[in-house]
Design a protein that fits this description.
This protein is α/β, with parallel strands linked by helices and about 375 residues long. Helices cover about 35% and strands about 15% of the residues. The chain is built from eleven helices and nine strands. It starts with a strand and ends with a strand.
């Protein structure tokens, strides 16, 4: 199996401007090419698009717009987990020898009709993600004593981190008190406990070990991959204090990379809601079960950017198809020591956790410089 590394990336600023999905994707592809003068169109064997947009044939359209004629092109859709899934697909094409260079681009519009899963209509209004997050929140509070202030600290930390992310949707710092006083959506979820849908696009270039040196002198290697799907409906999860699919995916990713949680220097986790980050740092092994809140408070108090240095989904915004790819871009920049004011000193090993729909599916990736 061939080794695979990331050799370049491109981003757009997350916003709510009126643009087409094709324009969004093309903008980050142009950014990727502009950032890598050695990359030309004929180098690219695979073009994968990551989105929940209902437009058809997007990978082929983006290829044409970018002047690329790849061997392989198609879209990957898995709700919020689309980005990481698309990167795993690209990894598979390269590691198997079917391709040498893959371009993966993800994008979403803030008003995308594909943002809410319509499959389980029997739940009525409760199909909206805020309701599963409310159930996870209440369950974790009952079992471990997590408080509303604990959740506010998650949001405050990530909004603060987003201030030094030039691509973030939010550019305002919120105090814990301001978050505590923000409008309640449910009894357990406030507006500022939530990530926000927005426009955004992110692109990365992956290449085999034989080719990667053409594009970068500091490749970021994908050394661990774990994936798990539990179901489509979150009610199949028998423990709402844990993201079961994330635990399974993390176990496999750690095993493949021969790493342990204590080896991870920097991580991007899927904080669709504040409670998600609390549970995820526990399930990924960064903190003992029930101590995720204290782990996050320590980071907030000391300005430690180990988890979600770009501001996470809460601070950066959440364009679904781009999110997992933007997470990977951040970890790549961290491991290349190019994250500027967000930089975690000495970062050599990074982790990305991307998930969908109450962690009914999860992907965990481990990277090394």
């Amino acid at each position: 199996m061939k080794r695979v590394a990331i050799g370049g990336f491109g981003l757009t600023k997350f916003n709510k401007e009126d643009v087409t999905i094709e324009s969004l994707m093309l903008s980050s592809v142009k950014s990727l090419f502009n950032n890598n003068s050695n990359l030309i169109q004929k180098d690219v064997d695979v073009v994968l698009t990551s989105t929940n947009d209902n437009s058809k044939y997007l990978a082929n359209i983006v290829s044409e717009l970018a002047g690329i004629s790849p061997k392989i092109s198609h879209t990957v859709e898995s709700l919020c987990n689309s980005g990481a899934n698309s990167v795993v697909s690209a990894f598979s094409y390269i590691s198997s020898g079917l391709a040498d260079v893959a371009l993966v681009v993800g994008a979403e519009k803030f008003d995308n009709p594909g943002l809410v899963l319509e499959w389980d209509i029997s739940r009525g209004q409760y199909k909206h993600p805020v309701y599963w997050s409310s159930m996870f929140t209440r369950s974790h509070m009952r079992k471990y004593g997590t408080t509303m202030e604990d959740l506010a600290i998650v949001s405050a930390k990530n909004h603060k981190n987003a201030l030094v992310n030039p691509y973030a949707y939010f550019d305002k710092e919120y105090s814990v008190d301001e978050i505590m006083q923000s409008k309640n959506i449910t009894e357990d979820i406030r507006v500022l406990d939530c990530s926000f849908p927005c426009n955004g696009s992110a692109a990365i270039l992956l290449a085999s070990e034989e080719i990667i040196k053409k594009f970068t002198d500091c490749p970021v290697w994908i050394t661990g991959i774990g994936q798990k799907t539990i179901s489509a409906g979150f009610t199949k999860n028998d423990d709402l204090t844990s993201m079961k699919s994330t635990k399974h995916a993390a176990y496999d990713a750690y095993a493949m990379s021969k790493k342990e949680p204590e080896d991870i220097d920097v991580a991007e986790v899927h904080d669709a809601f504040s409670i998600c980050e609390v549970i995820e740092v526990e399930d990924l092994g960064f903190a003992q079960k029930g101590n995720g809140n204290q782990f996050i408070k320590n980071m907030y108090d000391t300005d430690d950017k180990k988890v979600n240095p770009r501001g996470g989904l809460i601070g950066s915004g959440h364009p679904l198809g781009a999110t997992g790819i933007a997470q990977i871009v951040e970890i790549s920049q961290q491991l290349q020591n190019k994250a500027q004011k967000r930089q975690v000193e000495g970062a050599k090993v990074g982790l990305v956790q991307n998930m969908s729909a109450a962690a009914t599916s999860s992907t965990v990736l481990i990277f090394e410089s």
